[in-house]
Amino acid sequence: MIHPRGPAWRWQLKIELLDVAPTIWRRLVVPSAIKLPKLHQVFQTALGWTNSHLHEFVINGVRYSDPNPDFDDESGQVDELDVLLDDALGIDARCFDYIYDFGDDWHHVIVVEDQHLEASASIRCLAGENACPPEDVGGPMRYAEFLAAIADPSHLEHETYLEWSGGQFDAARFDLEAANRALDRVKA
């Protein structure tokens, strides 16, 4: 069945969190005319982040973010509010960066893999691997320490990290159906 407004162009994106092992990634399909604040929400939802920190997109050398009056003059960021992904990408860019939590410095690379003409307006995750690190774990190096500690019951920080993370953490866990149920709540 064709959507009443007809088919629309959709981007297939692969987002990967850099500097962590095991590799954490998601393959997503989003409207090509998605605004950057909505794309931020999609990334947060698909990866499992909780949107507790600032973020920034770097596309074609331009830094886009939610305006922060405390840092706008020194950061050189452009307000992302009305920026469409299509416009930011232009005709050449097929790769861009997404940074989340400037303290932990979670750096993601996004590759534009394909473009589809589809009737569906839904945002969806096609595939992915591994769990997102817990919020405020301390960045890639501290995440590696966290994983080592929870994997070794004799580690001095084993119990502390387990308690801090809610009693358990499975770095290999990724539930595609749960990710798509969560993305269903993100309106395109």
The tally of beta strands, per DSSP, is: 8
Radius of gyration: 18 Å
Mean pLDDT figure: 91
Can you tell me the CATH topology of the largest domain?
A: Structural Genomics Hypothetical 15.5 Kd Protein In mrcA-pckA Intergenic Region, Chain A
What's the helical proportion of residues? 25-40%
The CATH architecture of the largest domain comes to: Roll
Derived from helix and strand composition plus strand pairing, the structural class reads alpha+beta
The CATH homologous superfamily of the largest domain corresponds to MM3350-like
Count the helices. How many? 6
Q: What is the topology, as strand order, of the major beta sheet? A: 5-4-3-6-7-1-2-8
Main sheet properties: 8 strands, mixed
What is the fold's blueprint, element by element?
Layout: E1 8-17, E2 24-31, H1 36-47, E3 55-59, E4 62-65, H2 72-75, E5 78-79, H3 85-89, E6 95-100, E7 106-118, E8 124-129, H4 140-151, H5 158-164, H6 176-184
Parallel strand pairs: 4-5
Antiparallel strand pairs: 1-2, 1-7, 2-8, 3-4, 3-6, 6-7
Overview of this structure, please?
With 188 residues, this protein is of the alpha+beta class. The protein folds into 2 domains: 8-131 and 173-184, MM3350-like (Structural Genomics Hypothetical 15.5 Kd Protein In mrcA-pckA Intergenic Region, Chain A, Roll); 133-169, no CATH class. The protein is built from 6 helices and 8 strands; from the N terminus they run E-E-H-E-E-H-E-H-E-E-E-H-H-H. It has an 8-stranded mixed beta sheet with strand order 5-4-3-6-7-1-2-8. Helix 1 runs antiparallel to helix 6 (176-184) and helix 4 (140-151) crosses helix 5. The mean pLDDT is 91.
